[in-house]
Amino acid sequence: MQNPDPISETTANVPAICHTPDVAVTRAGRRIVLLIAVLAGFLTPFDGSAVNIALPAMGTEFHMDAISLSWIATAYLLAAALFLVPFGKIADIYGRKRILLYGIAVFTLSSFVMTMVPTTNLLIAVRILQGFGGAMIFGTSVAILTSVFPPGERGKALGIYTTAVYLGLTIGPFLGGLLTEYLGWRSIFFINVPIGIVACILILWKFEGEWAECAGERFDLIGSVIYACALIAVMYGLSIVPDATGIVLIAAGIVIGIIFALYEMRIPMPVLDMQLLTKNRVFAFSNLAALINYSATYAVTFLLSLDLQFTKGFSPEYAGLILIVQPVVMVVLSPIAGRLSDRIDPQIVASTGMACTAFGLFLLSFLTELIPLWYLVVCLAVLGTGLSLFSSPNTNAIMSSVEKRYYGVASGMNGTVRLVGQLLSMGVVMMLFSFTIGRVEITPEYYPQFIRSLQYAFVLFTILCLFGIIASLKRGKRQPVPPPRPGTTALEK
After folding, report:
1. Which residue of 80, 124, 208, 431 lies most exposed, with the fewest beta carbons within 10 A?
2. What confidence tens digit (pLDDT) does each residue in 208-222 have?
3. Which among 408, 476, 398, 438 is positioned nearest to 154, based on CA atoms?
4. How far apart are CA 486 and CA 61, in angstroms?
5. What are the backbone dihedrals phi and psi of residue 73, each rounded to the nearest 5 degrees, phi first?
6. Are 347 and 473 in contact (CB under 8 A)?
């Protein structure tokens, strides 16, 4: 006999505001949903990976130091992380399709504005606006896919979605390098515009139905503000360490984060249901594994892009061609990994992927100015294999560990740990730059310190992944989602 859902038990006395609308999606409709999710999933990683390859060109135009360059990537991630949980909840209240549409529209518009920015401050400000749109996309895509695809097809759909994400990562460095080389870095952002317009047209024209399981529920504004304050304090603190103010800010951010968790556990309608973490082992440890994985891997492309163009003297085009190895491997293997997670417990597949990722990062810790190119290609291929085996099976484990009425919360949490992990990854890099280089442009006289920063980063990331393997194994095997409580509809199963 199955154990009852702990979340159902702990929320049994909460007013029954949340409900699942009666949305029937045909097979053709599911294909349309998947196509829109694929376009949305492609947009943001393409933008991020293409921008990474263009950072040296941006730095040259605006005379930016290494830490300022880091903020071009970090500002986007921080904005997305700040708003993802609130928008995930807003989508549950007002409709995920609507929020997805708004997110793609904001992301597209801000991409167009990026083609005209004249100053460093405005560039970072528009990146924040892009992150605002990205948060709406992140918080809805996976939740909608999980809602319309049954468990037997869900892993395959998530594998295809993950393939689109990695396709964006694949094309980003190479196409970004070509565009930067021949048309300038601003042309990278123009590519997002037609893709975003097509996605918006498809949503308005072909996307039937809506998902608003918590229509009528009150939005937790206080919790959202506390959450934002915690993230801002930690991230800004990491960027100015070893200054004493940075350490104080990090400590303050951790304390505020604890206050946020305690507050969310005390109110009936939280923006982030903490009981999903305290009562659901598979959900909690799968998210912890994802947090560690993204913390250990996101900054790799950023660091190698700088290394290839600064210390090794490659053009943006050639650097992008080298970095394409990792996401190409992901594109090939992600659908296979997704299908495997429908047949084999995700614990096994994802843990194997985490171990492979740790090995790839360990190999990169030996990086020097004289390392042969073939060695770097092998490292990227190993990393790509590990990430593809981890990502879609881990996402499948997260989404399959909760009932349908929690898909929005689960998707928001999944996106949050991804973005927070990416923020921590960039935060570690900024901290190491502060220690070893300082606020200076990366010129030949500072190359030894720069290489040392890379080595330190890859050692730290390898150690993180070792803890990630433990977290992935500790989740236990995926349990079937229990049957609905008496009185619920069939669509809540």
Report:
1. 208
2. 666 666 667 778 889
3. 398
4. 64
5. -80, -40
6. yes
Q: How far apart are CA 397 and CA 345, in angstroms?
A: 8
- Answer yes or no: are the C-beta atoms of 407 and 140 closer than 8 Å: no
d(CA 273, CA 277): 8
Burial 138-149 (b: 16+ CB within 10 A, else e): bbbbbbbbbbbb
Radius of gyration of the chain (CA): 22
Cα distance between residue 346 and residue 266, in whole Å? 33
Give the total residue count for the chain. 493
Taking the C-alpha atoms of residue 118 and residue 163, their distance in angstroms, rounded to an integer, is: 35
165-214 residue pLDDT tens: 777 766 777 788 888 888 888 888 888 899 889 888 888 887 766 666 66
Q: What is the phi-psi region of residue 168: left when phi exceeds 0, alpha when psi lies from -120 to 50, beta otherwise?
A: alpha
- The end-to-end CA distance of the chain, in Å, is 17
Q: How far apart are CA 334 and CA 165, in angstroms?
A: 10
CA distance 452 to 74: 22
Can you tell me the distance from the alpha carbon of 331 to that of 379, in angstroms, rounded to the nearest whole number? 17
Residue 427 predicted with pLDDT over 60 = yes
d(CA 90, CA 405): 14
8 Å CB contact between 309 and 319: yes
Return d(Cα 252, Cα 335) in angstroms, integer.
Answer: 42
- CA distance to 68, 108, 139, per residue, from 83 (Å): 23, 17, 9
Phi, psi torsion values for 212, nearest 5 degrees = -145, 70
Considering all CA atoms of the chain, what is the largest pairwise distance in Å, rounded to the nearest integer?
A: 71
Alpha-carbon span 415 to 96, nearest angstrom: 14
For residue 233, give Cα distances in angstroms to 55, 230, 240, 277.
25, 5, 11, 23
- Comparing CA positions, the residue from 215, 258, 233, 271 lying closest to residue 85 is 271
Asked if the model's pLDDT at residue 466 lies above 90, the reply is yes
Q: Which residues of 58-95 are buried (b: 16+ CB within 10 A; e: fewer)?
A: bbeebebebbbbbbbbbbbbbbbbbbbbbbbbbbbbbb
pTM greater than 0.85: no
- Identify whether the C-beta of residue 362 lies closer than 8 Å to the C-beta of residue 462: yes
Q: What is the pLDDT of residues 232-280, one digit of tens each?
A: 888 777 666 667 788 898 899 999 999 998 998 888 888 777 777 788 8
Vertex 19 angle, CA 18 and 25, to 5°: 140
In contact, 78 and 423? CB cutoff 8 Å: yes
Q: Are 282 and 476 in contact (CB under 8 A)?
A: yes
353, 389 Cβ separation under 8 angstroms: yes
